[in-house]
């Protein structure tokens, strides 16, 4: 019984060390001149047709370079249509992109709206935390 408790304690201590080495917040990271905003945690309540639709927003000099959809549980056929609207944000200043109203993709309306809300949430987070 004592050996089992010691093993459990060792596992717990090891896990604590691993977690303590992780970054505190992976929502906004930097890679060279690029700031990357990940909406996985800041837009948890934003759902498409089936579930969350997080994105990564790549920003350089206050301009959106790229918006990338992250893995999700949306229907692939329809989500592929919705993802196309993300191109509309590229090249725009972060302020302009945050205020943009992009038309939803017909046939993938819920996924489209969720993607747009994720982008807005990510850009708002960037503005408040840069």
From TrEMBL:
One family name in Pfam for this protein: FMN_bind
Record's keyword annotation contains Acetylation: no
Cellular component, GO annotation: membrane
Signal peptide coordinates: 1-24
Keywords: Signal
The keyword Signal appears for this protein: yes
GO molecular function: FMN binding
Annotated FMN-binding domain residues: 48-126
Name this polypeptide is given: Electron transport complex protein RnfG
Provenance organism: Hallella colorans
């Amino acid at each position: 019984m004592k050996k089992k408790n010691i093993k459990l304690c060792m596992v717990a201590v090891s896990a604590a060390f691993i977690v303590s080495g992780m970054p505190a917040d992976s929502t906004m990271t930097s890679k060279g001149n690029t700031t990357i905003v990940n909406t996985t945690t800041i837009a948890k309540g934003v759902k498409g047709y089936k579930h969350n639709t997080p994105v990564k927003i790549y920003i350089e000099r206050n301009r959106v370079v790229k918006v990338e959809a992250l893995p999700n549980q949306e229907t692939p056929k329809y989500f592929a249509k919705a993802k196309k609207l993300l191109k509309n944000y590229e090249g725009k200043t972060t302020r302009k992109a945050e205020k943009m109203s992009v038309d939803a993709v017909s046939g993938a309306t819920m996924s489209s709206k969720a993607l747009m809300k994720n982008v807005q949430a990510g850009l708002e987070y960037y503005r408040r935390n840069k």
